[in-house]
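User: Sequence recovery, please. Input:
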C-alpha cells in the first residue's frame, strides 16, 4: 500500500512554476493590459476592454472608465493575459500575472509553468530547426531554469538574454518542450545551468577560457564541425582607451559585456578574436557570435540535419553530462 501511495505522489504534485519578470528592461511607467478579470485592493472586476496601468511611487493605479483603482498589487488569474509597453511591444502570456510598483516603475511578473517558459525560450532562440535540435534547445533551456535561480530579487528570471529570452510560443516550440518534458542535463548528480550561444569559431570555449564561474559545471571546449567549415567572421574597430583592458587581460565574458555597454551591443560579438593595435584604435578580428560556452546553436542545427539525435547533440556540447528526468 505504502509503495503504491508513494508512486502516486509525483502525479499529484503541481508542475514547477517560475516567476518571470517581463518587460523589466523597459522600466515601464505605463502598461496596457487585456485580461478577463483583475483583482486590485480587495476588489475583483471583470475587465472587458483594455486597461491602462500606471504607477505613483509604490502604488499601482488602474483606470476603469472614470474610476481610478489603487493598490499595492494588481493580479490577474490566467490562462491568457496580454500586456503592452506602449510604443514598444505587445505580448500574450499563458499564466497568472502580478503587477507591483517601485519608485514609479511597474514590475510585471508572470507566474508560468516551467514547460510553458521552455517553449517560449525555444520560440525566441531557435524558431526554425530540425526536431532534434529544437529538443536539445528545450532541454538546455529547462536545465538553465532548473539550476540557475537567484540572479534577481522579486522574481526568478527575467525575459531577456541576461537570463533567457522569451517569445510568444509557437506550435513547433511547444512540441519541442512537450516531447522532452522534464528532461534536464545533469553533471555529477546536479542540474547544469546549461549555457548556449548562436555560433562558434569551429571550437567552443570552456568557462575558464573566458574567466567565467561555471557554477558546478566547468564546460569543455569541443570541436564544432559546421562552424569550422563556415565560420561567421567579424571585425570591429574600437577606440584604444575603451578596449585597453580586453587586450591586456585577454578575453573575458565580463569584459566583453562591459565593453558592450560602452561601445554598443554586438560590437564585440564573441570571445574568440585577435587584436591589432593601430594609433588610437584597436582592431578586433573574430569568429562566431555569443559567449562561446556550452551548446553552439548553429552546430546543433547542423548535427540535427545530419541525422544525429538530441542526446548525441547534448553529449557533444556538454561532455560528461547525463540527461535525466
Ligand atoms: Zn535576468
Ligand atoms: Zn559552432
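Assistant: Recovered sequence (325 residues):
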Amino acid at each position: 500500500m505504502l509503495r503504491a501511495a508513494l508512486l502516486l505522489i509525483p502525479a499529484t504534485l503541481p508542475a514547477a512554476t517560475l516567476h518571470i519578470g517581463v518587460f523589466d528592461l523597459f522600466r515601464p511607467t505605463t502598461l496596457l493590459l487585456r485580461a478577463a478579470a483583475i483583482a486590485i485592493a480587495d476588489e475583483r472586476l471583470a475587465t472587458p476592454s483594455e486597461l491602462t496601468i500606471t504607477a505613483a511611487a509604490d502604488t499601482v493605479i488602474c483606470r476603469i472608465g472614470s474610476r481610478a483603482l489603487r493598490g499595492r498589487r494588481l493580479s490577474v488569474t490566467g490562462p491568457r493575459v496580454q500586456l503592452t509597453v506602449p510604443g514598444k511591444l505587445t505580448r500574450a502570456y499563458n499564466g497568472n500575472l502580478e503587477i507591483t510598483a517601485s519608485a514609479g516603475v511597474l514590475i510585471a511578473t508572470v507566474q508560468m509553468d516551467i514547460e510553458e517558459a521552455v517553449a517560449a525560450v525555444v520560440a525566441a532562440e531557435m524558431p526554425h530547426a530540425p526536431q532534434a535540435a529544437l529538443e536539445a534547445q528545450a532541454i538546455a533551456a529547462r536545465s538553465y531554469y532548473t539550476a540557475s535561480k537567484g540572479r534577481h530579487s522579486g522574481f526568478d528570471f527575467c525575459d531577456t538574454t541576461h537570463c533567457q529570452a522569451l517569445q510568444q510560443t509557437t506550435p513547433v516550440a511547444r512540441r519541442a518542450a512537450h516531447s522532452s518534458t522534464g528532461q534536464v542535463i545533469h553533471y555529477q548528480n546536479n542540474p547544469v545551468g546549461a549555457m548556449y550561444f548562436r555560433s562558434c569559431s569551429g571550437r567552443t570555449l570552456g568557462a575558464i577560457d573566458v574567466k567565467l564561474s561555471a557554477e558546478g559545471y566547468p564546460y569543455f571546449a569541443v570541436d564544432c564541425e559546421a562552424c569550422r567549415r563556415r565560420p561567421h567572421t567579424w571585425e570591429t574597430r574600437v577606440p584604444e582607451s575603451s578596449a585597453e583592458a580586453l587586450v591586456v587581460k585577454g578575453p573575458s565574458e565580463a569584459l566583453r559585456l562591459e565593453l558592450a555597454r560602452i561601445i554598443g551591443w554586438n560590437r564585440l560579438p564573441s570571445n574568440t578574436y585577435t587584436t591589432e593595435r593601430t594609433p588610437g584604435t584597436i582592431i578586433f578580428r573574430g569568429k562566431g557570435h555569443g559567449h562561446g560556452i556550452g551548446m553552439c546553436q548553429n552546430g546543433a542545427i547542423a548535427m540535427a540535419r545530419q541525422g544525429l539525435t538530441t542526446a548525441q547533440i547534448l553529449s557533444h556540447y556538454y561532455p560528461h553530462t547525463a540527461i535525466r528526468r
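The chain has three domains: 16-112, 115-194+295-315, 195-294+316-320.
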